[in-house]
Amino acid sequence: MSKLVLxxxxxxxxxxxxxxKEVSIGRSPDNxxxxxxxxxxxxxxxxxxxxGRLMLEDFGSMNGTFVNGQRVKMVTLKxxxxxxxxxxxxxxTDSRDVRAPSLDHDQSKPAAPKINETVMLxxxxxxxxLQKVAAVGESAQVxxxxxxxxxxxxxxxxxxxxxxxxxxxxxxxxxxxxxxxKLRGWFAPKAAAQINxxxxxxxxxxxxxxxxxxxxxxxxxxxxxxSGDIIEVAGIQLEVVYRD
Amino acid sequence: MATDFGARSDAGRVRENNEDSFCxxxxxxxxxxxxxxxGQASGEVASRLATETIVAYCREAQVNxxxxxxxxxxxxxxxxxxxxxxxxxxxxxxxHQAAEHAPEQQxxxxxxxxxWLADQRMSLAHVGDSRAYRLRAxxxxxxxxxxxxxxxxxxxxxxTAQEAATSKLQNVLLRALGVDPDVQVExxxxxxxxxxxxxxxxxxxxxxLSDAQIAGVLEDAEDSQEAADRLVDLANQAGGEDNIxxxxxxxxxxxxxALARMGRWxxxxxxxx
Lengths: 244, 273
Prior knowledge:
Chain A is mostly beta strands. In chain A, 8% of the residues lie in helices and 40% in strands.
């Protein structure tokens, strides 16, 4: 299946698959691909599949449709072609996406948001929509979040307790007054590292004044903690323990 | 606590209206941004109502610490974080009621992202897809998880970040202010370190600019206002397809660090002897 990627200068604005249904392009909001720009006609052109070939037809637009720089009326498109409409470019690509298209197919009913407008799915529509999505990817099920609170057990280093239960949304390891895991010693950093509980009740460790390691790997981005992980930072070693 | 802050909002190059709003209360270190949605001018109304309500509630809570919370107290966070969550629940109610009472404003809603700094702790709360980023030691980190359909799909592993970035379902929110009488507010806390720079922004900014571009501006700008201005200008240059808003807050503790204090102590002891 082919994909149309709408770009303005170097930024990608939209991406759209072309299935059995044609994609109309223009300034009017009822087009399949809306380009909201005065240089674009209300109904400017269309892209459609015919006998396995991808076709482009210009609707006699004022400012024209260009393929690889050439003004066209009707042409066959191939991957890599660049379609110019006004100052926008539509790049034709081969879609190897196996999941997203099934969403695109069914853009007609429950949740077909207008491309340029932020919308909120109301509760019923959202349920229907999410059901539909669940049907698309069964493998994508998330286990229901249960509130299991981990404990940090101190294996090595100078701290004020032997272990800490991560009851708070934020746990700071350091010398600061707000730190839960209190470091001792003159040169201990105020906030060596931070651990955040997210809304799904998972815990992430991130760098603060220092870069901690988890199982020997430096934490460059917030890293999800799991039972048995060994955290090292500022001369202390902690084990993450999930107890039943 | 000393904070350097700046903000700018722009309609962009395509839209006629600017439905984004921000409301800043630097005297209590509170910074709020909202992106409105809805027909006619109602998006503007929603985002303005939301930001003003949040600031008004927090100012009141600052003066009167015993003022009532709305909704259930969240365990394991500071009082300020609870007040911020309360403020946003109240804003939700206000926008929702305004929408119900004025037919022309039905369906209006808004996102919100807000930070409240106190001591060394930052309370961060959001609903929707307006984001908070933090630049710390040259590293940019997105602190908020969008309450959007595509972000949810990425978290569930059924969409890649790349697919999400180009999906036409990007605009579908799973949470927003004003839609239902109650809203779930996501609250986080972060320690504030010397030099931490926080960016609050609407999706009109993040759809146009890469993380590297954002980090570059935050790092290079002389002050927060210059950073906010340059971010909005860059997003406009990249297309300006949507309203663009940036609020930049740079945290710095008092100039007296540990060494300065030690220096004073030594000086003091000299005088005494």
